[in-house]
Design goal:
binds NADP nicotinamide-adenine-dinucleotide phosphate, single chain, 8-stranded mixed beta sheet, 10 helices, N-(1-d-carboxylethyl)-l-norvaline Dehydrogenase, domain 2, about 15% strand, Rossmann fold, about 270 residues
Length: about 270
């Protein structure tokens, strides 16, 4: 059995703490550093980031790149960057690493801290394929050579999450105005989301062929539906930002000639 590398974790917030514990459980010798002094069982606490840089690998999980960048140094040997950012920020950090002789892995965590070390935790990473420590956190998935790709996937997938969760919250608020409880609508909502998921492969395909003819549901009828949804929310005294925004986007696609087309044609407006 080979000797395990030593690993430091910079940032012991909700996620960084879970990562440090996972590395300990995986048998690594772990050093931790946090701005506000904090300890994690069975790890060594570094008084300064420089002390943490002595490890073979440094895993960074800070709130933002703005916070992270001033902490980085060319004393780091291998940087595994798990701080969320834009693709451009990831590429700039990869370039900083290249010019400073630091080996670099860019990753994003598609999980909450409680899911770390479970099969549900997907760790998308791009650029350097040298990903040994990522196995301690979940399932590593390499998404490409460009260092910005993991961040791109991350934001795209989170966009789906934020849209779907907000749609659910709007639904709970709407039925709640008539005394329907979340417990009553949630099983229907969860089943509905799962059914909608089965439609994505076909929708994705159509965004590429741009053959939007449909015998399922035309945009015209969906624009009418979104007007009804907006009106019903307004009548119940609720905020209509979400339904109105969707209505306006769909209506723009309708005005631009997609009334008889499928919902997939809305991508023509989004791509503008
Ligand atoms: N939590 C999740 O479910 C989740 C899921 C996927 C990805 N992520 C990503 O993981 C990263 C960390 O998230 P988190 O949930 O752990 O956040 P968090 O609990 O708010 O922790 C933020 C971390 O950043 C540090 N920090 C903030 N400002 C700093 C500064 N000016 N200088 C030095 N350190 C500073 C904090 O140190 P102090 O303790 O001293 O404040 C703490 O260690 C984020 O990029 C997030 O998007 C989180």
């Amino acid at each position: 059995m080979g000797i395990k590398k030593t690993v430091s974790v910079l940032g012991l917030g909700r996620m960084g703490s879970a990562l440090a514990r996972a590395l300990v459980e995986e048998g690594y010798e772990v050093t931790v550093w946090n701005r506000t002094p904090k300890t994690i069982e069975n790890t060594r606490t570094a008084a300064t980031p420089q002390e943490a840089f002595k490890s073979d690998v440094v895993v960074a999980c800070l709130s933002t790149y703005d916070v992270q960048q001033p902490l980085l140094s060319n004393e780091i040997k291998v940087l595994v960057n798990l701080t969320s950012g834009t693709p451009e920020q990831a590429r700039q950090t990869a370039e900083w690493a290249r010019t400073n002789g630091v080996e670099y892995v860019d990753g994003v965590i598609m999980a909450v801290p409680q899911q770390i070390r479970t099969a549900q935790a997907k760790i998308l990473f791009s650029g350097n394929e040298n990903h040994h420590v990522l196995h301690a956190f979940g399932e590593p998935v390499h998404v490409g050579e460009d260092a910005g790709l993991a961040a791109l996937y991350d934001l795209a997938l989170l966009g789906i999450m934020w849209s779907a969760f907000t749609g659910y919250l709007q639904a709970v608020a709407l039925v709640g105005t008539e005394g329907v409880t979340p417990e009553q609508i949630t099983p229907m909502a969860a089943g509905w989301l799962a059914d909608l998921g089965t439609m994505l492969p076909e929708m994705g395909h159509v965004t590429q062929t741009r053959q939007y003819e449909t015998d399922v549901s035309a945009l015209d009828i969906n624009v009418s539906g979104l007007a009804l949804l907006t009106e019903a929310n307004r009548a119940q005294g609720l905020d209509v930002t979400l339904p109105k925004t969707l209505h306006d986007l769909y209506e723009r696609a309708q005005r631009n000639g997609h009334g008889a087309h499928s919902i997939a044609s809305v991508i023509e407006e989004i791509r503008k």
